[in-house]
Amino acid sequence: MKLPVLYTFRRCPYAMRARISMYYSKISYEHREILLKERPKKLYQLSPKGTVPVLNLPDGKVIDESLDIMKWSVSVNDPDSWYVNNIDHQLEIISINDKEFKKWLDRYKYHDRYPEYSVEYYRGKCEKILDNFEKILDSEKFLFSNNISLSDIALLPFVRQFSNVDIIWFRNRFINLSGWMDELIGMDIFQAMMKKFEIWNPFGKGEEVIFNN
């Protein structure tokens, strides 16, 4: 049986959330790990923008946005109803993450590349957004209830990146988000999807990830 082919990079937050959703939905696929500094021609042939993740389905369809891969995955199998309730609100939170938080996160992580403002300024911009999530978690275990939603998974890799800049400061500043992050990172599917793969040889196949449903 021909498998979907996923072009991915282990540490990319967009690729991470796509992989989590595929593991959650138990979708078997061919894993093609790439290096961002040596992107293969095949990646550009499938998606001219050349970013990961890119999912090439057996019918030839190409999905080159991580959120669309997540939506496709749960449309195939959503055993714990990650994407059933509060869909509009979930998409709103994801949009804030992708359009606003990611911008300031990059400037916080790489503040030496953005000397217009101080690292504290960029961190403060991130804090304002994260404070909204911290407040939600005062009364909920996850962003919309005591159950995981797709939005939790969509935000996780980015909050994780933010925390890793100064983990001690983060844990003291964001108590609720720290617990939320630890809970999600502790999931078996998170640990499984962070497995290290060999870099894909463009002249061969990738490694198969098979789920016995």
From TrEMBL:
Classification via InterPro entries: Glutathione-S-Trfase_C-like, Glutathione-S-Trfase_C_sf, Glutathione_S-Trfase_N, GST_C, GST_Omega/HSP26, Thioredoxin-like_sf
Domain GST C-terminal: 86-203
One Gene Ontology cellular component annotation held by this UniProt entry: cytoplasm
Cited Pfam families: GST_C (PF00043), GST_N_3 (PF13417)
PROSITE patterns hit by this protein: GST_CTER, GST_NTER
Domain named GST N-terminal: residues: 2-81
PANTHER family listed in its UniProt record: GLUTATHIONE S-TRANSFERASE OMEGA, PTHR43968
The name this protein goes by in its record: GST N-terminal domain-containing protein
